[in-house]
Amino acid sequence: MKRNQFTIAFAFLLFALAALAQTSPSQTSLTANPVFQKNCAKCHGPDAGGHFFGGPSLASVKATAASAEDLQNIIANGKGWFPMHRMPKFAGKLTPQDIDALVEQIRASNK
């Protein structure tokens, strides 16, 4: 009987660990997303608060009020014209799923 209880408890633990491992990036915060930390934090700051000579805050009302389509376009195609203050394009560097997760997280970061 104890062996069956152990087997059931072990199976439940494995199921719980598998569920945690499958948490999508869109279910995490923007600053906890490894894609953000690797690709965005150097310009927008590790807390997404922006840098004076870098990218703007991604937690601002302006950023979070932007439409999902506008944010996807900016991330995919870049923005700006001056090389020192230009956001590079990330199409081809990030998957569409990564871009969608970043958009969801940006839009949720000021709510």
In short:
By secondary structure, the chain is mainly α.
Structure description:
With about 110 residues, this protein is mainly alpha-helical. The protein has a single domain (about 25-110), classed as Cytochrome c-like domain (Cytochrome Bc1 Complex, Chain D, domain 2). The protein has 6 helices and no strands. The longest helix is centred in the first third of the chain and has 20 residues, at about 1-20. It is globular, with a radius of gyration of 19 Å. Residues about 10-25 have low confidence and may be disordered.
Backbone CA Rg: 19 Å
Cα distance spanning the termini: 50 Å
Mean pLDDT: 81
Second CATH tier, the architecture = Orthogonal Bundle
At CATH level 3, the topology is: Cytochrome Bc1 Complex, Chain D, domain 2
Number of domains: 1
- State the helicity in percent bands: 40-55%
Structural class: mainly alpha
**What is the H level of CATH, i.e. the homologous superfamily?**
Cytochrome c-like domain
> What kind of oligomer do you see?
single chain
**Low-confidence spans:** 9-26
Overall 3D geometry? globular
* SSE order: HHHHHH
CATH classification class: Mainly Alpha
Strand content: under 5%
